[in-house]
Each structure stands twice: as structure tokens, then as C-alpha cells.
Design a protein that fits this description.
By secondary structure, the protein is of the alpha/beta class. It has helices at residues 18-29, 46-55, 69-79, 93-98, 100-121, 154-172, 206-214, 242-258, 275-286, 310-316, 324-337; strands at residues 9-13, 33-38, 60-63, 83-86, 125-131, 177-183, 185-187, 221-224, 236-237, 239-241, 261-267, 273-274, 292-295, 304-305. β5 (125-131), α6 (154-172) and β6 (177-183) form a beta-alpha-beta unit. It binds nicotinamide-adenine-dinucleotide (NAD) and uridine-5'-diphosphate-4-deoxy-4-fluoro-alpha-D-galactose.
């Protein structure tokens, strides 16, 4: 995107998904025009109406796969976006262990196609959804962007591969303006209760699982281990409200408008929360009990992970504003009003 000549259209790959859909709301609020490109492999078209309801306008939507160069090129030709927010990807760690080739093909292969098309169409601004998973089991917390990168599963390997791809690209061609935003643990929902996370099947992640227990869809939470070297023995993570996370993306677009280069930036709160702290906070927010049992550790899990978020503050002027009670209250509102997610009104 050129300064003094702002193109307000932003292509949002994976824009029907959890984070991408919330990003659309924040993009509209900041005066941008999101265009959603998504193959709906892990999302529901109904979310687009909900974005419209919440934002006052619905984004254009094209159903398509990022591995399909022709489809992508057609979108660039008709909408002429000035920048891309790239959320499209598969993200289930367990599935990635079973189907590593699918993850390489979809996430890395898909990103290669997207970058080729962007290059051809002369669009060089990209915000990429990376993950704290690129730090693997960290040597120390809080984690700064200089911490060594390592992959501990095929999903994490795809994020690492894409970050390296983007490094090579920016080193070769000075026109690129790229940010890899390394998310810690996104949770929460839009405060309206109309949009939120709607995982297919049994949730892999803590927050949606707790929410489904609280609403009565599941009997009890399994706490994966209470013998970690943490204050209460359960795993510690840096949970970040999705509305804070997507605000960080809008701030990043402004950073990219200011100049070329590659940025690797953590998006987290800088605070670690244990599984049991999360259970307590959710009970307080919902007024419901969240029964749990402690079971064995989940293979591959790490003890503790939280961000040093100072680079985001310096580069973007961004800090997370919403606290743990807000994350729980907003998740609960969404879960209670939409017990089956987007499947029914
Ligand atoms: P999500 O599954 O809700 O959204 C991803 C969207 O991408 C879905 O709508 C899916 O249909 C779409 N998609 C997948 N493959 C596609 C393809 N080949 N072509 C077109 N669309 C495709 O996931 P999310 O939680 O919103 O995550 C968004 C991004 O953020 C992902 O890249 C994920 O790896 C990354 N991330 C997520 C988390 C998290 O905990 N949610 C943490 C770190 C990073
Ligand atoms: N946990 C439970 N019970 C559950 C689910 C999770 O006790 O049913 C615990 C985990 O053991 C961990 C914590 O809750 O201590 C958080 O687990 P999540 O699955 O919600 O999140 P993770 O940090 O394990 O994984 C997330 C993303 C991954 C990403 C990783 C590192 O889901 O995609 O962060 O960035 F790879």
C-alpha cells in the first residue's frame, strides 16, 4: 500500500474463520473494506451475515481455495486490494501429526500460491498469522521475538516454513512489506455475543472446551496434567482477547503503510494464566460450575508460555486492553446465546 494514496481494500484469506471474521469487524471500524476469500473448510457462511449485523456492512465474499491461483487472480483483478491479511490455514496440531502432507500442501503450498499471485498483481503488503508455536518449548519466559525458533509438530513446522519463505522473499525484493504476527492463545468473542469461536467437533483448545462444559454440552473438563513446574502444577498460557488481537492487525496495516520491510511481532498480553485460574475465572464470569478431572499430560504440551509484548508496543503502539474476566464474559455471552455456534440461530 502506498502512503498518501491509500487503497482501503484488504483481501482477508480465511476471513470466515474465528480470527479472520473478527478482523473484518475491526477493519470496517478503521475505515478499511475487507474482501473475504475462504473455502469454508473450517467455517460457516453464516458468519458473513453476522459480520454485517455487527459492523453495519457485510464484506464481499468469494468462496475459494488459496491453492487455486486462477481463483485468487480473479479476486485480485475484480477487487484490486492494496493489502492482504492471510489467516487461511489448517490449525489442528493432532490432525497435523496424522496428515502432515495435507498441512504442508494447504498451509505452505497455499501461501506460496498466494505470494506468487500477489507478486504478479503488484500487491506487496501482507499480514501473516503466525503463532507462538514457532518457539516450541521455550528456553525462557517471557518469550521475545529473538528466542530460537523450533517446530515440535507438523503444524508448527508449516508456520516456521512460511516465516522462512517470507524472510527469503523480503531479502530478495525490497518492495515487500510483511508482518508475521505471532499469536499466543486467542480466546474470547465479539462483545455483541453475535460472533465467536465455533470449533467443529470436540474442541482441541481449553477455552471453547470450558465454555461447552459451562453451557451443558459436555460433562466435564479434562485437565491435562497438574504436575508441571508451574505455581499450581497446570499449564500456563498467555490468553489474548480476539478483539485485542485483531486490533493489532489493523495497527500492523498502518505500520506497513509507512514503509517496506519484514516484521516479526508477538501478540500477547505478557501475562501467564494457568488452567485452574482459567476455570475459576470462567465460573465467576458465567455463574456456572465447570466440573473437571485431572488426567495425564497431553503429549507434546509445554509447561508455560507467555509473551514479551514490548515490541508490539514499540512498533505498533499496541497493547492488549481486555483482561481475563472480559475474555470469559465475552466467551460466555457468545456460548450462551449460540450454544451450537453458527449451526442454528
Ligand atoms: P479458523 O479455522 O477458524 O480459520 C481459518 C479459516 O481458513 C477457515 O475459515 C477455513 O475455512 C479457511 N481455510 C483453511 N484452508 C483454506 C484454504 N486452503 N483456502 C481457503 N480458505 C482456507 O482458524 P483461526 O483460529 O481463525 O486461525 C486463523 C489463523 O491464525 C490460522 O492460520 C491459524 O494457524 C493462526 N493461528 C491461530 C491460533 C488460534 O489459537 N486460533 C493461534 C495461532 C495462530
Ligand atoms: N488443556 C486442558 N484441557 C483441555 C484443553 C487444554 O487441560 O481440554 C490445557 C493444555 O494442557 C494447556 C492449556 O490448557 O496447558 C492450553 O491448551 P490449548 O490447547 O488451548 O492451547 P495450546 O497452548 O496447547 O495450543 C495453542 C494452539 C496451537 C499452538 C499452540 C502454541 O492451539 O495451535 O498454542 O502456539 F500450536
Amino acid at each position: 500500500m502506498k502512503p498518501n494514496h491509500p487503497n482501503r481494500k484488504v483481501l482477508v484469506t480465511g476471513g470466515a474463520g474465528y480470527i479472520g471474521s473478527h478482523a473484518c469487524v475491526s477493519l470496517f471500524a478503521a475505515g478499511y473494506q475487507p474482501v473475504v476469500f475462504d473455502n469454508l473448510c473450517n467455517s460457516h457462511a453464516r458468519v458473513l451475515e453476522r459480520i454485517g449485523e455487527v459492523a453495519g456492512q457485510a464484506p464481499d465474499f468469494i468462496e475459494g481455495d488459496i491453492r487455486d491461483a486462477q481463483a485468487l487472480e480473479a479476486v485480485f483483478r475484480s477487487f484490486e486490494p492494496g493489502a492482504v491479511m492471510h489467516f487461511a490455514g489448517l490449525k489442528a496440531v493432532g490432525e497435523s501429526v496424522e496428515r502432515p502432507h495435507l498441512y504442508q500442501d494447504n498451509n505452505v503450498g497455499g501461501t506460496r500460491v498466494l505470494l506468487d499471485v500477489m507478486q504478479r498483481m503488484g500487491v506487496h503488503s501482507l499480514v501473516f498469522s503466525s503463532s507462538a508455536t514457532v518457539y516450541g518449548d521455550p528456553d525462557e519466559v517471557p518469550i521475545t521475538e529473538h528466542a530460537p525458533r523450533r517446530a515440535t509438530n507438523p503444524y508448527g513446522q508449516t508456520k516456521l516454513d512460511i516465516e522462512r519463505l517470507l524472510e527469503t522473499l523480503t531479502a530478495k525484493d525490497a518492495r515487500w512489506r510483511i508482518a508475521c504476527l505471532r499469536y499466543f492463545n486467542p480466546v474470547g468473542a465479539h462483545p455483541s455475543g453475535r460472533m465467536g469461536e465455533d470449533p467443529a467437533g470436540t474442541p482441541n483448545n481449553l477455552m471453547p472446551f470450558i465454555a461447552q462444559v459451562a453451557v451443558g454440552r459436555r460433562e466435564r473438563l479434562q485437565v491435562f496434567g497438574n504436575d508441571y513446574d508451574t505455581p499450581d502444577g497446570t499449564g500456563v498460557r498467555d490468553y489474548i482477547h480476539v478483539m485485542d488481537l485483531v486490533q493489532g492487525h489493523v495497527d500492523t496495516l498502518r505500520l506497513l503503510e509507512a514503509g517496506a520491510g519484514l516484521h516479526m511481532i508477538n501478540l500477547g498480553t505478557g501475562r501467564g494464566v494457568s488452567v485452574l485460574e482459567m476455570v475459576n475465572a470462567f465460573e465467576a464470569a458465567s455463574g456456572r460450575r465447570v466440573p473437571y478431572e485431572v488426567v495425564a499430560r497431553r503429549p507434546g504440551d509445554i509447561a508455560a508460555c507467555w509473551a514479551d509484548a514490548s515490541l508490539a508496543r514499540e512498533r505498533l503502539g499496541w497493547t492488549a486492553e481486555r483482561d481475563l474476566p472480559a475474555m470469559c464474559v465475552d466467551t460466555w455471552r457468545w456460548q450462551q446465546q449460540n450454544p451450537r455456534g453458527y449451526a442454528e440461530d
